[in-house]
Each structure stands twice: as structure tokens, then as C-alpha cells.
Write a structure and sequence with these properties.
The N and C termini lie far apart (38 Å). By secondary structure, this protein is mainly alpha-helical. A two-stranded antiparallel ribbon has the order 1-2. The chain contains 3 helices and 2 strands. Helix 1 runs parallel beside helix 3 and helix 2 packs antiparallel against helix 3. The chain has one domain: AF1782-like (Substrate Binding Domain Of Dnak, Chain:A, Domain 2).
């Protein structure tokens, strides 16, 4: 069981770092702050940040599996936003499936 916890903790650290970097690279593509796309992009960013916060909360309580799931969701919101064009992203970063 200890080995599994170490594996989960390592993956969690990886997802936290990956998601934090993705947050710095994801720029809202829409210029018009009143557009549906801009509002959707801000919602996607908020969801990513909230799930990342949830992940850290669960990790702090020792629930690493739930923390890993929340971290994965956090990154998924950013990746989905990039994929559908809500975010302008660095295509060379390997953090987004936009190619």
C-alpha cells in the first residue's frame, strides 16, 4: 500500500506542476470581454483554478486519490479550453492537445 501512495504522490506533484504551468500559458483568445467566448474562457479558467484548489485541499487531508482526480480535472478544463480555441496557448509546450 505504501508503494501506491508514493506513486500517487509523485503523479500528484507532476499534475500540480503541469497545471500551474498550463495556467501561466493559457491566454484568453477572445478580445471582446462581452463575448460568449470570453465569458466561457473565464469560466474554464475559474473551474481549473477551483479544481486545483480542491486538489490541494484533499491532499492536505491525506486523500491523495481524490486530490489526483481533482488535479486531473483542473488540467482537463485548461486542455479542453485550448482544444476548442478559448485559449491561445504555446503549441510547443506539450501541455495541450491542440495539434
Amino acid at each position: 500500500m505504501v508503494e501506491i501512495s508514493n506513486d500517487v504522490a509523485a503523479k500528484l506533484d507532476k499534475y500540480w506542476a503541469m497545471t500551474e504551468k498550463a495556467l501561466t500559458l493559457a491566454k484568453i483568445a477572445a478580445a471582446d470581454k462581452n463575448s460568449r467566448e470570453y465569458k466561457s474562457a473565464t469560466d474554464f479558467l475559474a473551474m481549473a483554478k477551483n479544481y486545483l484548489g480542491d486538489s490541494r485541499h484533499f491532499a492536505g487531508k491525506g486523500d491523495l486519490l481524490t486530490a489526483l482526480a481533482a488535479a486531473s480535472y483542473a488540467h482537463a478544463w485548461l486542455d479542453a479550453g485550448a482544444r476548442i480555441g478559448l485559449f491561445a496557448v504555446d503549441n510547443s509546450s506539450n501541455l495541450f492537445t491542440v495539434d
